[in-house]
Design goal:
The complex is a heterodimer of chains A (447) and B (280). Chain A has 447 residues and is of the alpha+beta class. Chain A has 2 domains: 155 residues, 3-Layer(aba) Sandwich (D-Maltodextrin-Binding Protein, domain 2), CATH 3.40.190; 227 residues, D-Maltodextrin-Binding Protein, domain 2, CATH 3.40.190.10. Chain A is built from 17 helices and 13 strands. In chain A, a hairpin with a 2-residue loop joins β5 and β6. Chain A is globular and about 70 Å long. Helices cover 74% and strands 1% of the residues of chain B. The mean pLDDT of chain B is 88. In chain B, 34% of the residues are buried. Chain B is mostly helical. In chain B, strands 1-2 form a two-stranded antiparallel sheet. Chain B has 12 helices and 2 strands. Classes of the chains: A alpha+beta (447), B mainly alpha (280). Chains A and B meet through α1, α3, α4, α16 and α17 of A and α1 and α11 of B.
Chain lengths: 447, 280
């Protein structure tokens, strides 16, 4: 009897092991409501966990309307490439997936169906939102996002009323030297203002370091591309690295925490500091809205200004607007599934249900059908719109051309060592310039 | 009865064999094959010969990870086994509450590596912040942080194995030794340790392979900072695999080298400790 029990236990253990490998956040509507005449199926591997439930709801709505089964699987935050790699190897691979731009495309171009002439491409408001692979269109951007320096208007106007304040009005900050003067003065008089620092902590934990190794690094790259009339390069010169250093110094020396403690600070820490009114400036983008609304700081008091780094003529510089979310259709899927996917995409960006759903997800979509009534309710997006209306030049998202994740990690590690005092700025310079070259070569062996 | 077992042996072994083939053997062979390929997904691999292994040879960070891992393994194997053995000796004496202590020491082993890594990160950073530093200040901090974490997690588990070993030593041996006039030290080194060799073999094997293969705790505690200086081999492989487009094969090649190393070390170790085991 004992032995039988033991054997039973072992069998159970084996089964449990087998079952554990299948735990997946799958939501399939296949066959539930689908009419038997429906051809093809859609399988979307979604990148944005924030909108997982909304995508599933939208997929249900589409299935109800057309009978075409739509499966939505959402990858865990930060785990998209990992999951995409394993899903793509399956016989039932995703028909719709995402790449993050030219560098992501390099890895997946063998899987990208040429979208030229499809409905979803013709709906794009500008050609620049199409991701090109030679003369083919490999992907379309479906959401544009904007980042900059989010600030607390109430605290800033409170500062303006102090004696000997550097500025009388928040709008006077339109270049780096003014920003620096104001930030340093706020830091010096933080007790008077009741804040802990001018900037939120520039956390170098992996939940936050992309704000600096990727997003902040974008600005010197953007200006260099502008000067050299490039859109991508195999070797960066690092012409604006001194500016990068100046703004990094400003961030870490005038913040809520000492520079040596940055590696222990997370993205949530920075969001919380801003939301609780403990800091005036917070570098992040439109996607951060949900993290900072509904706490101490009133919605009306949240604004966003460009990130100035001290380049001549930057008074006209705007916010950083672009996309790193491109829809791609799997070329290796069955023909009918490809057709079904193209129809689904077209429905998403033209039908009222689809447009409303994308808007509810908080997306600004670069498609013709998204008129003013489809503008999400998000003051940061409002700030982004106003910024363009006053005629500022938006800064492109050049970081999608950064050669590899390893490059970003190298720059991030050097930034951290510089901040905590165990490394020199030279290391950042090396990681940025030399690293770019070696990483470009490593990722593009044919070039 | 025996005949029946012989007849149906294949049938009963089949599920386990199938699981072994699907879950271990096929992925293992496929993994070795992929280390000679350039691939994005495992179904579109292109054979490229030894290119991945050549890329590996010039990788300084990989070499650093190798030494870092070796040092880490050496320290943790010694510390964990000595401390676990000591705890086992203590908790096989008869006093009230031994079972409570055993349970308490064993508990850390039930917490997942990632969770444990983050908890210890909070603790270490909390203490270091008094001195205005964090775990990433120097690779020395990261190293000892990992050692403490590993000890905390593993000692309880190894202790249980040692306790089982100690309890199986017959009292007659101690009695005979005492009659022969052995003192406490002699009892320990001439009776207890030799008689515990099977347990020592198992425990050193487990701690050696666990330390060499450590991943979750490393990822959560330091993520390799500062500048990949606290990156153990497993994390280095992971970062290689996902760090650049087209480098999946190099990560795979590293994994094969890694497997050979672990297998070799484990074989040497078991041979060494096995040879010291005595028959009762």
């Amino acid at each position: 009897m004992r032995k039988n029990l033991l054997a039973l236990g072992l069998c159970a253990a084996m089964l449990a092991g087998a079952a554990a490998g299948c735990g997946n956040n799958t939501n399939s509507n296949a066959g539930e409501t689908g009419t038997p005449t429906a051809k093809g199926a859609v399988y979307y591997l979604n990148f944005k966990p924030e909108q997982a439930d909304q995508w599933t709801a939208l997929a249900n709505a589409y299935t109800n309307e057309t009978g075409v089964p739509v499966t939505v699987v959402t990858a865990a935050s930060g785990g998209y490439e990992q999951q995409l790699k394993s899903e793509m190897a399956k016989s039932e691979a995703p028909t719709l997936f995402q790449v993050n731009g030219p560098v992501g495309l390099a890895a997946w171009k063998a899987y990208c169906y040429d979208l030229s002439g499809s409905d979803v491409v013709s709906e794009l408001t500008s050609d620049s939102f199409a991701l090109k692979n030679g003369d083919q269109i490999a992907g379309v951007a479906y959401v544009t996002e904007t980042y900059g320096l989010i600030y607390n208007e109430e605290l800033l106007s409170k500062y303006c009323e102090l004696d000997n304040a550097k500025i009388k009005n928040a709008s006077e900050i339109n270049n780096f030297s003014t920003l620096k003067a104001v930030a340093e003065d706020i830091q010096a008089r933080r007790d008077e203002l009741g804040v802990k620092g001018a900037f939120t902590s520039a956390g170098m934990d992996s939940s936050s370091d992309w704000r600096f190794k990727t997003h902040l690094a974008n600005i010197p790259v953007y200006y260099e591309y502008r000067d050299r009339s490039l859109s991508t390069t195999d070797a960066i010169e690092g012409k604006y690295l001194d500016n990068y250093r100046a703004v990094w110094d400003l961030y870490i020396e005038n913040a809520t925490c000492a520079p040596a403690l940055l590696s222990s600070k997370t993205g949530d820490d920075a969001a919380a500091e801003f939301a609780m009114g403990e800091a005036v400036f917070y570098q992040n983008g439109t996607w951060a809205w949900n993290d900072i609304t509904g706490y101490e700081v009133e919605d009306d008091d949240i604004g966003m200004m460009p990130i100035y780094i001290g380049v001549p003529g930057e008074e006209n510089q705007g916010l950083c607007t672009g996309s790193e979310n491109y829809w791609c259709v799997n070329k290796k899927a069955k023909d009918e599934d490809i057709m079904a996917t193209l129809d689904f995409l077209s429905w998403c960006v033209t039908s009222d249900k689809g447009k409303t759903a994308l808007t509810d997800m908080g997306f600004v979509c670069p498609f013709r059908g998204f008129t003013d009534q489809y503008a999400p309710d998000n003051p940061l997006l409002e700030a982004a719109r106003e910024d363009i209306e006053v005629g500022h030049t938006p800064v492109d998202w050049c970081f999608t051309t950064m050669p590899s994740e390893t490059w970003k990690n190298g720059v991030g590690a050097a930034l951290l060592e510089y901040a905590q005092g165990t490394g020199k700025w030279d290391a950042v310079q090396t990681a940025f310039v030399e690293g770019w070259k070696t990483e470009y070569q490593a990722s593009n062996p044919a070039a | 009865m025996e005949k029946a077992i012989k007849k149906t042996f294949a049938l009963f072994a089949l599920p386990t064999l199938a699981a072994f083939v699907i879950g271990f053997f096929v992925p293992f062979i496929l993994g070795i094959y992929l280390s000679f390929c350039r691939f994005t997904t495992i179904s579109d691999a292109q054979f490229t010969g030894l290119a991945n292994y050549r890329a590996l040879a010039g990788d300084g960070v990989f070499l650093h990870s190798l030494w870092f891992t070796a040092a880490f393994t050496a320290v943790t194997v010694v510390l964990i086994n000595v401390l676990a053995f000591a705890a086992a000796l203590l908790l096989t004496r008869s006093f009230r509450g031994t079972n409570v202590f055993r349970a308490v020491f064993f508990l850390p082993n039930l917490i997942g590596g990632i969770v444990l890594g983050y908890i210890w990160q909070l603790i270490f950073n909390g203490i270091l912040s008094i001195f205005g530093r964090t775990l990433t200040y120097s690779s020395v901090y990261g190293f000892w942080g990992l050692v403490v974490l590993m000890c905390w997690q593993q000692i309880g588990y190894m202790m249980i194995i040692y306790i089982a070993g100690l309890q199986s030593i017959p009292d007659a041996l101690y009695e005979a030794a005492r009659i022969d006039g052995a003192n406490g030290r002699q009892l320990l080194f001439r009776v207890t340790v030799p008689m515990s060799m099977p347990a020592i073999t198992i425990c050193t094997f487990l701690t050696l392979t666990n330390s060499f293969k450590l991943f979750d705790q490393n990822l959560a505690l330091t993520a390799g900072q500062p500048s990949q200086m606290t990156e153990l081999l497993a994390l280095n492989i992971y970062n290689t695999f996902y760090g650049r487009a087209g480098w999946e094969g190099v990560g795979q090649a590293k994994a094969v080298v890694f497997f050979l190393l672990v297998a070799l070390l484990a074989m040497i170790q078991t041979r060494l400790t096995r040879s010291r085991e005595v028959q009762q």
